[in-house]
Amino acid sequence: MTDARVTVLTRVNCSACERAEADVARICDDLGVGWSAVDVDGDPELRAEFGDRIPVVMVDGAEHTTWKVDEAALRAALG
């Protein structure tokens, strides 16, 4: 595994976040790409910026998708 290239912005008790994390984990594991999850409620700046627009998938620090994982687009971005 490489260092995390993908970050899922998430929060506790968010079913969409859980699905996004599972999708990202599966895709990143398949591609050998590192990933992490960050709870936006633990960071006031992230909570202010992303608020209710989560989950958000970030690739290399840039916003990639919001609300759900687009598998084809994520694989292309990481390929």
From TrEMBL:
InterPro entries: Glutaredoxin-like, Thioredoxin-like_sf. SUPFAM superfamilies: Thioredoxin-like (SSF52833). Gene3D superfamilies: Glutaredoxin (3.40.30.10). It comes from the Bacteria. This is Thioredoxin family protein. It comes from Pseudonocardia sulfidoxydans NBRC 16205.
